[in-house]
Every structure is written in structure tokens, then in C-alpha cells.
Amino acid sequence: MNKVELDPDSSPVAKFGAQVRSAREAKGWTQEELALAIGYSPTHISAVETGRRPPTARLARELDKAFGLENFFVRKSRDLKSSTILEGFPEYVAYESKAVELRLFDLGIIPGLLQTPAYARAIAAGAVRRGSITEDQAEERVAYLARRQANLRRENPPQIHAILDESCLRRPVGGSATMAAQLDALVAFARMPNTVLQVAPYAIGEERTFDLPVNILTLPDRSLMAYAESAIQGQLERDSGAVPPMLTAYYQLQALAHSQAVSVGLIGQLGEELP
């Protein structure tokens, strides 16, 4: 069996998984032997080690028992709970980095994958001022976003179709200079050979098909996966019966949105109107 390479810096959950693998290999155990020792399936252990599944408190306790550690994994799992990254999101990112097509919809703010560093820092700084996160967590959030963006600049990048609600463009973030650079970055994104950018105007009103940010992935085997999130939780949907209706809703939104040419023209106009 081929050994999956791990990137502990890709997310807190991935780091936890790398620590599990390291402890297991130090014992000379296979995933099957560890699974037997703690009462989980080898598939579950594999998903935890590769960062595709976040650990539960029970799993952390069983790992400490199996490895003879004094609450090491329990403390690490608690640290994950204090992370600013929503539950379900690290698992989504693991698939995002392998996807051949991404369809994005966002409202209110520019999608993370399209944010400039200055825009991302401004969003994180606002959360710090509100007391929602600490400065360390803000740094974690910005660094995590940069790693996601780097994954999409790989040798064979995915096709990316992004639809932005008009509110993303009109909400001022970080001041005029930050917004000007962000709008310029969107225009540059639209000019890439593997991207399409559209704006969903306010005028479509109640016909807008989504009220929450939605990401839909096409994986190399052409299977579909969707991710949506609220303010407190992310939901990864892999059910073959549940995702196609979301894809249909995305196509309906595409039909209502401005063309890329009109969208780029609107972005340029808003950039010229900045004070």
C-alpha cells in the first residue's frame, strides 16, 4: 500500500493526524494494529492520520491509553476546539486540494481563495477587534488561507468557476487601497485560462438560489462533493443523492448572474468609484 504523504502545516487537524502517525510508527504498529488496540476501524485511523476526519474526545483518550501518554492527545484535541477553523472545513480542504473543478458562491465577503493577503488580514483584524478571535488565531486563519491558495497553484490547476453576490464587491473592507487591490485581483483572476468569474446582481432578488456560501467540488473520479457553512459550523456533503440538486441550483444561479464580461466591467467601475 502506498504511504500517503502528510503536510502537518496544512491545517490543525492535519497536524494532529501527523502526530498520531508518528506515535504509531514509533510503536512499530500498522494502522490495523492501532485500530484493534483502541476499538476503531483501520479506515477511521487512516482518515484521522491524513486529516480527513477530526478527532473526537473519545478517540483522543483511547490514543493516550494505547501509547501510554499523559493526556497528550486529549490536550491536542482540545486545542482543535479552540481553533477558528470550522468543524468539517479541514476535511473539505483535503479534497479541495485534489479537485479538478471548483464551483464557488459567496456573499458578503470575497471568497477566501480569491482574497488578497491585505484583504484577508483586514477581515481577520476585524474579528480580533470584535473579540471573536485572538491575534494568534487571526494569524492562524491568514496563514491557513495562504496554504489553501498555494495548493490551487499546482502544476495542473483546477477549473474554478466563482459567482460572487454583488454584496461581496460593495462591502468596503480594509480601506480604499485594500479594496482597490482586491478588485484588481478579481479582474486578474477572471483573465486566467482556468477560471470563470460572474457577479450575481442584487436585481435577481428572491431568485438567488443560495443564502449561504457554497462550494461544489468535482474530484478526479468525477464524483461530486459540496460544502456549505453557517456562522458556527461547516457541513461536508458527499451523498450522491444530495449534491446534484445543489449543482442544479448553481447552474440556475449562473443563468441569472452577469456574464463574465459584464461582471469584469462592473468590478472595474466600482474600482474607479473608490475614494
List keywords for this structure.
single chain; 275 residues; alpha/beta; 434 Repressor (Amino-terminal Domain); Endonuclease, Chain A; 2 domains; 6-stranded mixed sheet; 6 strands; 12% strand; globular
What features would you describe in this structure?
This protein has 275 residues and is an alpha/beta fold. Helices cover 51% and strands 12% of the residues. It has two domains: 8-81, lambda repressor-like DNA-binding domains (434 Repressor (Amino-terminal Domain), Orthogonal Bundle), CATH 1.10.260; 89-273, Endonuclease, Chain A. The chain contains twelve helices and six strands. Strand 5 and strand 6 form a beta hairpin. Helix 4 (57-67) runs antiparallel to helix 5 (72-81). The termini are far apart. The mean pLDDT is 89.
Report a brief summary of the structure.
The chain has 275 residues and is α/β, with parallel strands linked by helices.
Secondary-structure topology with pairs:
Layout lengths: L11 H16 L3 H8 L3 H8 L7 H11 L4 H10 L7 H8 L4 E6 L10 H13 L5 H17 L7 E7 H5 L5 H15 L4 E6 L13 E5 L5 E6 L4 E4 L5 H14 L3 H14 L2
Parallel strand pairs: 1-2, 2-3
Antiparallel strand pairs: 1-4, 4-5, 5-6
Helix pairs in contact: 1-5, 2-3, 4-5, 7-8, 10-12
